[in-house]
Amino acid sequence: MFMKITSLALLTALMCGSALAVQGPSQAELNNADMATDSWLMFNKGYMGQRYSPLNQINNSNVANLKRVCTFDTGDDGSFQATPQIYKGVAFIAQANRSFAIDASNCKLLWTNKYKPTGPEVLNTSRGFAIADGVLYRGTGDAHLLAIDAGTGKTLWDKQVADSASGFFTSSAPIAWNGMVFIGEAGADWGIKARMYAYDAKTGEKMWTFDMIPTGNQAGAETWEKADSTSTGGGSMWTSYTMDVDKGLLYISVGNPAPDFAYQYRPGANLFTDSVVVLDAKTGKLDHYYQQIANDSKDYDTAAAPVLYDINGTKHIAVANKAGYLFGYNEADKTQTFKQATIKVMNQEKNPTSEGLPICPNYSAGTQWNGPAFKPGANMIVLNTVDWCGTVKLGEVRLIKGQLFFGGAMALNPVSEAIGTTVAYDGSTGRELWRYALPGTRVVAGVTTTGGNLVFSGDAAGNMYALDSATGKELFKTNIDKAPIGGGVATYTVGGKQYVAVAAGNSSKGLNGAKNVTGRVAIFTLQ
């Protein structure tokens, strides 16, 4: 028997004015977040983005005994793509316009914050928070950045990042570092020109700006051969960010150029779209970059944050994109170490036509907003990817404010043909180690690896599963009330006991979202 905390309990807690004292996490705690066992502080756990926990109470010999202890129902059927973020026994949850704090061991509601948009909401999703010094920071569907008291849920400040009437929104989970909060704009598919920002964590004042679509004398401007196409050039920061705290470098995955399919409208390589851009976090100055696709014509975003890891004392990054590739880069000499197809790829070297070009994958496949995880010691990358094809067509290039700016269309093959997979790769070579496939469903959830030799994830049918990290063998599987899993799995301890929490709900409404399914966080432990 598990406990379900409903919206009635939510209302009761609000009337009672539940509150808690939260003073951290400190910068020292944030620096240690990647290896922490009692917390999950960022969208991808820590600055390196490895989504790895050293915890091993729950392991490959006992995970089959996991039991659900409680479920928190948000009461909201809006998009739910976050990972529960844990600090001092409290789980912080971001969904659409609401933010919640619950007890991470029993789902008891502590507070809720409901944001009231002041402009049109372009895409109403939030992938999570930055947490620092007792404050939560998050974006909104109308392109604001909020600071929320982590103890009370009270909004401390609210800054407009951009004008949502022009297609901007802030869906990514920001990260905080040394008194700064980093967040970028999304909305490339609506014809925006995206920028990355740093804000003062205390005041909300803007500290620096970096243009992802360069113009004039900016580096990369020459890759836009038709200069006036830059005003609608796209680029999006969709998900979250990675940092090398030793060097103070900020790693940013940047999405597709716009219009999405009309490549001829914007000749050139179109920097810094479909790239990992690396900035000096203090100044916002460009350090280096890696472009995965030049002049993208199929909406093949580099949407998910890269993962940073160490091989024999040398730092590497790996990043996966919607085109169905995993890329590896050596940060010492800035070279590409591998490019590995994760699924079937077809006709990617060809441009769309007005008659239609069959392609694999389609733009809702490959690796979406959740990127690779890493298991230290095993030197293993694990990611989710979707094998699913479609047809792309060129069309009219016409910009209408607030509407999609595709310059064509993409038809998706039946979703029954999709094959969602969790795949492991060697972190040095990109060689495939094992593959776990789920025909007929998308797998877009976050991947979590553990010291208990486990890999956790979930699928669009609402199944959370645990695999043996050495073989990919399924060891545990349970359904979260048929709610699609597009968020991630967090694992942590409360009172010395290990728990697993997963976010489930509408992950992509209109594609694989389940109508009238509210968001929920289900918490498990051994019993």
Textual characterization of the structure:
This protein has 527 residues and is mainly β. The protein has a domain at 109-444: Methanol Dehydrogenase, Chain A. It contains 2 helices and 37 strands. It has helices at 7-16, 27-31; strands at residues 3-5, 52-53, 66-73, 85-87, 90-95, 98-103, 109-114, 130-132, 135-139, 144-149, 155-160, 175-177, 180-184, 195-200, 206-211, 241-244, 249-254, 275-280, 286-291, 307-311, 314-320, 325-330, 335-341, 357-359, 373-375, 380-387, 390-394, 408-412, 419-426, 432-439, 448-450, 454-458, 463-468, 474-479, 489-494, 497-504, 520-526. The chain has a 5-stranded mixed β-sheet with strand order 1-3-37-36-35. It starts with a strand and ends with a strand. 57% of the residues are buried. The model is unreliable at 1-17 (pLDDT under 50).
Features:
527 residues; mainly beta; Methanol Dehydrogenase, Chain A; 5-stranded mixed sheet; 2 helices; 37 strands; globular; disordered N terminus
Helix content: under 10%
Secondary structure category: mainly beta
Sheet having the most strands: 5 strands, mixed
Which percent range describes the beta-strand content?
35-45%
- CATH C-level name of the domain at 109-444: Mainly Beta
Mean pLDDT: 95
Molecular shape: globular
How would you describe the oligomerization state of the chains in this entry? single chain
Spans where pLDDT lies below 50 across 5 or more residues: 1-17
Question: What integer value in Å does the Rg equal?
Answer: 21 Å
Count of extended strands: 37
Number of helices: 2
Q: What's the name of the CATH homologous superfamily of the domain at 109-444?
A: Quinoprotein alcohol dehydrogenase-like superfamily
Ends: how far apart?
Answer: 11 Å
Query: Largest sheet, order of strands side by side?
Result: 1-3-37-36-35
Using the 3D structure, state the CATH architecture of the domain at 109-444. Answer: 8 Propeller
At the fold tier of CATH, the topology name of the domain at 109-444 is Methanol Dehydrogenase, Chain A
